[in-house]
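Minimal example, chain plus 3,4-dihydroxyphenylalanine.
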Amino acid sequence: MENLDQLRDDLLGAVAAAEDLTGLDTVRVSALGRKGRITELMKGLGKLDPDARRTAGQDLNQVKTAVADAIEARKQALEDIALEAQLAGDAIDVSLPIRPEEQGLLHPVSQTIDEAIAILGEMGFAVAEGPEIEDDFHNFTALNIPPEHPARQMHDTFYLPEAEDGSRKVLRTHTSPVQIRTMESTEPPIRIIAPGRAYRCDSDMTHTPMFHQVEALAIDKETHFGHLKGCLMDFCSAYFEVDDLPLRFRPSYFPFTEPSAEVDIQCSREGGTLKIGKGDDWLEIGGCGMVHPNVMTACNIDPEEYQGFAFGLGIERMAMLKYGIPDLRTFFESDLRWLKHYGFLPLEVPTLIRGLVP
Ligand code: DAH
């Protein structure tokens, strides 16, 4: 039989020299595998006589155990080394500066709509919606603007191609048709606001063909003009963040309200800067009035039993005034520099009790 001491030294040397798990496995196979050196010797034991077999068997088993233990120990050591190398490779350097990340911002129109919803929502108004492609009835007739009414000319309407029955849909020229749709589908009491897009065929410094309005409608048995004034006063103070912001109601005409008024807020333009809530100048922010009985009747609400108010405000105008944005057209140019300058972080919304809630 082969010199076992020599064999053990050879194999232990090879185990110690194995540099990685694959190398170690090659050593294991060469020693203990099916045709390994120790295995072959084990097979040879059978040819020895019983006495010699016993001693040789014990010696060989010792070598086998020693080699197997050494392989196991080396395997453990190599695994530890591999793990440590992996951990060192994965290490995160927490002192490195963060990668620059683009934070998206809200467009001033979205921000202003969110603010209006937050404030009027606290007063109990729910948000209502309606289609932007409207029929003539909801955009005009039900709002007490019959065909041939001069107010139709003032609306610079975008008409869609004529349908088979000769009717033509329009891009809604204001958010007021949402009043009609809400009254048609809801029993009073009603308190809704309808923020959204409106369209008019008009384009200059102060007009864009698409713009935004927020409409409000309150209908109940005893809702009166005092409620309208109080609601607008509270809203404007909260929105412009000026305590007791003075308002002026100028008598006006809208077909869908009677009486009607235009609403101005107090401002000063001294020195070329606009200051809201100071001075002796006035700035128009929207229209309002008591809902016309004809409008209620068109929606099957009895004007003898119910009454209510409505108002409509221009969103872009509100944003321009509060945030000092000079040119309306820039709102829709999608200039990233403009958006970064005038954009808002999400959740910067004022409440009735004033102040931005972070
Ligand atoms: N619909 C009007 C417009 O677009 C704005 C308006 C005025 C809305 C008076 C109202 C209102 O609800 O009462 O010009």
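The longest strand covers residues 257-268. The pocket of 3,4-dihydroxyphenylalanine is lined by residues 174, 176, 215, 254, 257, 287-289, 310-312 (CB under 6 Å).
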